[in-house]
Automatic annotation (TrEMBL):
PANTHER family: CYSTEINE DESULFURASE (PTHR43586), ISOPENICILLIN N EPIMERASE (PTHR43586:SF4). It comes from Spartinivicinus marinus. This is Aminotransferase class V-fold PLP-dependent enzyme. Keywords: Aminotransferase, Pyridoxal phosphate, Transferase. It holds the Pfam family Aminotran_5. Residues 28-318 form the Aminotransferase class V domain. Coiled coil: none annotated.
Length: 392
């Protein structure tokens, strides 16, 4: 149905099945045209391009993101090359010598978990970590931990990268947790442009991190932070010259100023190509009346076709016993099999690769990602190749 949008990527993948759409999603052809537009804008405007980017390209991207998330404050969307950059900037809103109390989970992506472990090593943070498994009791355990004290930072993913488990009733969860911390951060990278999200009722209480690399099909370098308007009083000490871009010429050099909206969390000079690509993708969606719900239903149908075959399969590894999946829950756009150890996972990944099936392996978990680039023919081809996997 949508495969014709990806002809440039598909021309190089005639015999390989890429089921890593949760990580390396194909880019639609319009992104190539967008990259050329940026080059020509640079040639046309030279040093005047930044004024155009900040007055036209970035506001358009802010509107697209706000529309997809039903977010009422597009001016509060801040861009950066990575979520890590934005995360560190948020942490820097606290006094440099303050020991931070943090509540989080054992299933956060490396950009946060690695940084937090390093801060713990320096004894700059005191961290409470809640296990996400078993999933059925996760939210109750997280609430219990949150109610033990007031935290500086509460951080958790909407959809967890190592399982696909998605926190249900996000609005209710945010409402209950927001009073228990100074800053509440949700990693929305695996839900943005994949799972319908409505932030309208919680926009004043949450910092939402996401980006274009995965389901937004926009590639690297286009991550963003949605910050509540009350955050416009914060003064991060990790700051760059774009954080006061609108008043740069008028600023008093003796006082560090910040823009009066989300741009205060910006850094410095960056490559805006990813924002051009993101705009091109969401222009394409808008022109074709594609919503996040459209994408989610497409992927759900593909997953169900895959799962129906798995349910009758007798493979010792790719089976329901190892599948991290709760059928009655909204789930991420990838399916995860939790195996006995990382060596088994690695060997299975190698066996799949020999069949020209690309998946990824994280520790002892192997993930199959489904996206808009796929159709039922891809699923059928995948299932045919899986039947050729060795049993032992």
């Amino acid at each position: 149905m949508y495969k014709h949008w990806y002809q440039q990527f598909n021309q190089y993948q005639t015999d390989t099945l890429w089921f890593t759409a949760h990580s390396h999603h194909f880019w639609p052809d319009v992104t190539l045209q967008a990259m050329m537009r940026y080059w020509h804008d640079s040639a046309r405007l030279v040093d005047d391009k930044w004024q155009y980017i900040f007055s036209s390209i970035i506001p358009k991207a802010q509107r697209h993101i706000s529309r997809l998330l039903n977010y009422p404050y597009p001016e509060q969307v801040t861009f950066a090359p990575s979520t890590h950059e934005l995360l560190v900037r948020l942490i820097s809103c606290f006094p440099a010598r303050k020991k931070l109390t943090v509540l989080t989970t054992d299933s956060e992506f490396y950009s946060f978990s690695r940084q937090l472990k390093r801060l713990n090593e320096e004894k700059w943070t005191e961290t409470t970590v809640v296990n996400t498994e078993p999933f059925n009791g996760f939210i109750e355990r997280f609430y219990q931990a949150a109610n033990t004290k007031k935290y500086d930072i509460i951080f958790f993913s909407h959809t967890f990268f190592n399982s696909g488990y998605t926190v249900q009733n996000l609005n209710e969860v945010i409402e209950k947790l927001s009073s228990q911390c100074s800053i509440l951060i949700v990693d929305g990278y695996h839900s943005f442009a994949a799972i319908p999200v409505d932030l309208s009722e919680i926009a004043n209480n949450v910092f939402f991190l996401a980006g274009g690399y995965k389901y937004a099909q926009s590639g690297e370098g286009c991550c963003f932070l949605l910050s509540p308007p009350k955050a416009n009083q914060l003064r991060p000490w990790n700051t760059g010259w774009f954080a006061n871009f609108s008043q740069l010429e008028e600023s008093d050099s003796s006082v560090i100023g910040y823009d009066s909206h989300g741009q205060r969390f910006a850094g410095a000079t960056f490559d805006p190509t990813g924002i051009y690509r993101l705009n091109a993708v969401f222009d394409l969606w808008q022109e074709n009346k594609i919503t996040v719900e459209t994408v989610h239903q497409h992927v759900f149908a593909l997953q169900q076709a895959f799962l129906q075959s798995i349910s009758t399969s007798k493979h010792p590894l790719l089976n329901y016993r190892n599948l991290l999946y709760i059928p009655e829950y909204v789930h991420g756009h990838f399916l995860t099999f939790k195996l006995a150890d990382r060596e088994i996972c690695k060997n299975l990944s190698i066996a799949l690769n020999s069949l020209k099936v690309k998946v990824d392996c994280r520790d002892n978990r192997i993930r199959f990602g489904f996206g808009l680039q796929h159709d039922l023919d891809d699923i059928n081809q995948l299932l045919v190749r899986l039947k050729r996997l060795p049993i032992a």
